Amino acid sequence: MTIEILYVDDEPDLREVATIALEIDPGIHVRSCGSGAEALTILESWTPDLVLLDMMMPDMDGPTTHAQIRRRFGSRLPIVYITARAQEHERQRLISLGALGVIAKPFDAMTLAKQVHELVDRV
Amino acid sequence: MKASLSASVAARRESWRQRIAKIIALIVPLLIGGVALLLQEQVQTTDRLAAAEAETQEKRNLILSVFSAHQDIETGGRGYVLTGDPEFLQPFDKGTRELGRIEPALRRAFAGQPEDLTELAAISELSHDKREFTDRIISLQQAGDNAGAVALIRNKGGKRLMDGIRSHITSLLKRENDRLTEVSARSQQAISALRQVTFSLLFLLLALLIIAGIAILRTLRAREQALIQLEDVSLRRQAVLENAMDGILTLNPSGSIETTNAATTRLFGYREVELDRRDVGMLFASQPAIGEFARELREMHLSSDGAGTAREIVGRRKDGTEFPIEIALSAMVLNEGLRYVAVIRDITERKRVEQLKSEFVSTVSHELRTPLTSIAGSLGLLSGGAAGELGERAGRLISIAQSNANRLVRLINDILDIEKMESGRMPFHNSELDLSAALATSIEENRSFSDGYGVKLALQAPQVPVWVRADADRLAQVFANLMSNAIKFSPNGGTVSVTVSPGARYHRVSFTDEGHGIPEEFRSRIFGKFAQADSSDTRQKGGTGLGLSIVREIVQRLGGKVSFDSQLNKGTSFHVDLPALHDGPGRGTPGQEAGLLVCGNGAASAFTEALRRAGYTVSLVGNVQAVRAALASSNYDGIVVDMGLSVGAGIEIIRMVRETARHSGTPILALGGKTGSRELEGDAALVLDWLRKPIEVGRLIDSVDAASRVLDGARPRILHLEDDPDIARIVTEALDGRANVVAVDSLAAARRELASNRFDLAILDLTLTDGDGSALLPDLRRDGEPLLPVVIFSAQDADPETAGSVDACLTKARTPIGALVAIVESLTSPTRTQETVA
Q: Which Gene3D superfamilies match (chain B) (predicted)?
């Protein structure tokens, strides 16, 4: 079974690297986009198994996008943050917002797929 | 606020009381005058009454003496008849004589009283009859007819006459008495009336005096209260002042200290009395000459944003230790005139923290740079195929890594630049630059970058050089940043136009793109650090978010400013304004390019034209404000002032020129006006030459030429580094009249002087308390080229390398002082200076 992931990040280089890193695992398929608004459009027609969400983005930041997703598509879609601000109190805050987990930037490219697997297994 | 409010109320109340006091003060003398007049009137009335009494008495006496004279006549006549003794004739004669004497007096006394005169006439008639009767008796008696005489007496004719007289006299007396009574009653009445008025007036006077007294008492009490309030306010302020952490001083316009607070004495280690009335310069490390600070105060006051201008300088304590201070100056106008408030803060701690922060940032950045270098290097090698051919995916990953590593390197470099500039450790090697040329170079350097974006670069600059004073590398950094911004935000195929617009005070360089414009909400923070209109946008454009911040720092350090205007979807222009330098490098030679400022009105344009024909560059300005602006923005070689400009304007301009630091030595020519007039006494020395009107153009040009020569032949300034005060004095004296010598006794002091002043030659001693004089040599060079001639004058022989790098090497005691003077003169002569320039 393939895990479908939507990766939302405004940094194109990072989108490319993360996609490569995740797709090392043949059981993962990644679709990525550069903003919260784009993500909402994509989610209209496609329901992934997990949304990987960057926290700091222009226009619509991670938590705002998160709230929009919850409002429009309900609370079943698992959301994982991927952020450079991953200190413990930030992590707690994001978890309290209803995130499934938090992955710190810079991530370890070689273990990223494994981290995602573990999170998805929790659901 | 509250105190001042109640003070003003008190002042108003006081003015109300003052008005009353004034009115009373006016009325009281009037009243006193009135009372005096009344009293005089009273006295006069009394006098008149007494006079009337005396007159009545006199009249009564006269009347009575008339009666007694008749009695004498009667007695004499009867006695003679009865006794036949002629002795009785004596009273008769006396009475008769008396009557003759009294009668005219009586008539005089009763003149003007017709009733009384009638009575007197009757008396006179009766008296005549009586005398005749008595004469007849006496005649009868004398004739021996005693019986006849007695019969006459018995006939009672005499007695009847006598009774008639008595009755008239009684009537006269009575009337006189009545009159007296009447006069006396009238006088009494008048006097009592006067007395009443007098008493009323006196009472009024008393009342007024009481009111005045109360008013004065109240005023005094109010004043006392106001004083107490004032004292409280002042005590409160005093307490605030004394407990302030900052040193707070008040200065008079000449820069002398008037008051200090406890913090001042604590900060600087002086006692209050040691600071009182001293020049404030004593508190600063770079001790300005006495009065120098006052000039700065004035300039600060002249600049519009004078209030509370703060700047950082180095303070010096009593014990000589130096520490960083921040001084904020503001002006205040007191009743006794203009005063300045200086607030001095010890910023040692702040500086230390800043230093720590800056060292930390600097260390971290350098530490980051080291591993980054290996990363970028390795990635470069990988992408260059040093480790063999890479697969497509690997190549892509390596290229992402490489470009991000490069971005990180740029970011760290920018952070280091910003940090250096903010801590003031970025050295600026300013020199005169032609903006057009600098931009042409920058455009060439950015050509490949713009080609990459498919953007054209177009330079529009005037044909003549546009001079500014700047550090060439920093200016290139500014241009590169603004140009790359404009290129990055231009559409493919667009044009970035770079424009140079010369101005009077500032020259402007503009970079205009045809991009989307800057979003409104981003404009206010565009110069901030890591400011990004749209972070993804910036990252796509490959910027660090620090470029404009760096641009602004550099431009501000160069005394200029950066601004922009932008229209959405049309494009953006960034403008760099740099202080204009009108002279270009070096000073213009006379007769060629010397810049003259002519202050005059239309009439001056005639000789302005003549001066231009004679080869001078002339700027004509017509009023004091324009002169002020011109003096502030440019260096002029000479200033011509038309004294007929407007009343007082000429003098004002001359004083202004002398008070502007950069023009304090510029020659001034004054034209016309009242030559040698009193108004310029004391200022006359400020003027190099004075030409009468009508101005002969030829004479004017001669005079300007002469002024230029004076300027070129100005005494050279010599820095003498020498720790032996005696030798310093001897050298200064030997060069007296030939050069202006600034003697310093340490390397540190020499560096301070060099930083703040221009010198034409340096004389160095080698053995000093704080090091070797040759240690100053690098300070006297730039890029290996000597900035000014150097003479070593020391007891110690210089090592061959040092000796070879200076203009002359003289040994104390071995070289006569005259030889030193000769060498100094030859090294500072104008011809040599020109060779150096050439």
A: 1.10.287.130, 3.40.50.2300, Histidine kinase-like ATPase, C-terminal domain (3.30.565.10), PAS domain (3.30.450.20)
Q: Would the ipTM clear 0.90, i.e. be above it?
A: no
Mutation to test the A interface, candidates B536, B537, B538, B541, most A Cβ within 10 Å: B536
What CATH architecture is B717-837? 3-Layer(aba) Sandwich (3.40)
Instruction: Please state which CATH class domain B595-712 belongs to.
Output: alpha beta
Domains along chain A?
A: 3-118 (3.40.50.2300)
- Which of A13, A15, A57, A61 would you mutate first to test chain B, the one with the most B CBs within 10 A? A13
Q: Which CATH superfamily is domain B430-579 in?
A: Histidine kinase-like ATPase, C-terminal domain (3.30.565.10)
Q: Which of A13, A34, A35 sits opposite B404 (nearest CB)?
A: A13
CB burial of B747-758 (b: ≥16 within 10 Å; e: otherwise) equals bebbebbbeeee
Distance from CA of A19 to the nearest CA of B (A): 11
CA distance readout (Å), B493 to A73, B439, B500, B567, B571: 44, 21, 23, 19, 14
Asked if A13 lies within 8 A of B397 by C-beta distance, the reply is no
CB proximity A61 to B under 8 Å: no
* Cα distances (angstroms) measured from residue B248 to each of B273, B307, B329, B339: 15, 15, 10, 13
- Judge whether residue B355 has pLDDT over 70: yes
- Cβ contact B205:B28 at 8 Å: yes
Please provide the size of chain A in residues: 123
pLDDT for the residue numbered B96:
83
Cβ of A13 and B535 within 8 Å? Answer: no
> What pLDDT is attached to residue B674?
53
Contact yes or no for B536 and A16 at CB 8 A: no
pLDDT class of B288 with cuts at 50, 70, 90: low
Mutating which of A8, A9, A10 best tests the B interface, going by the most B Cβ atoms within 10 A?
A10
Kindly report, residue by residue over B496-505, the tens digit of the pLDDT.
Answer: 999 999 887 7
Give the number of other CB atoms < 10 A from CB of residue B777. Answer: 17
Tell me the two tokens of residue B539. 């990252």
State whether the Cα torsion A72-A78-A83-A88 is positive or negative.
positive
Q: What is the mean pLDDT of residues B114-133?
A: 82
Contact A14/A58 with Cβ under 8 angstroms? no
Cβ of A34 within 8 Å of Cβ of B539? The answer is no
Which phi and psi angles does B312 have, rounded to 5°?
A: -100, 130
Q: Are B710 and B688 in contact (CB under 8 A)?
A: yes
pLDDT in tens, B573-595: 999 999 888 765 543 333 334 47
Q: What is the per-residue pLDDT for B82?
A: 80
Question: In the prediction, which pLDDT does B70 show?
Answer: 83
Residues of A in contact with B536 (CB under 8 A): 10-11, 34-35, 57-58
Q: Which of B397, B404, B535 sits opposite A20 (nearest CB)?
A: B397
Q: What's the mean per-residue pLDDT of chain B?
A: 79
DSSP string, chain A: -PEEEEEE-S-HHHHHHHHHHHTTSTTEEEEEESSHHHHHHHHHH---SEEEEES--SSS-HHHHHHHHHHHH-S-S-EEEEES---HHHHHHHHHTT-SEEEESSP-TTTHHHHHHHHHHH-
Assigned CATH class of B244-346: alpha beta
List own/partner pairs for B76-85 with CB under 8 A and 24 or more apart.
B76/B134, B77/B133, B77/B134, B77/B137, B77/B138, B77/B158, B78/B137, B78/B153, B78/B158, B80/B137, B80/B138, B80/B141, B81/B137, B81/B138, B81/B140, B81/B141, B81/B146, B81/B149, B81/B150, B81/B153, B82/B150, B84/B141, B84/B146
Question: Are the beta carbons of B396 and A16 separated by less than 8 Å?
Answer: yes
User: Which of B400, B536, B540 minimises the CB distance to A17?
Assistant: B400
Task: With CB atoms and an 8 Å threshold, state whether B536 touches A13.
Answer: no
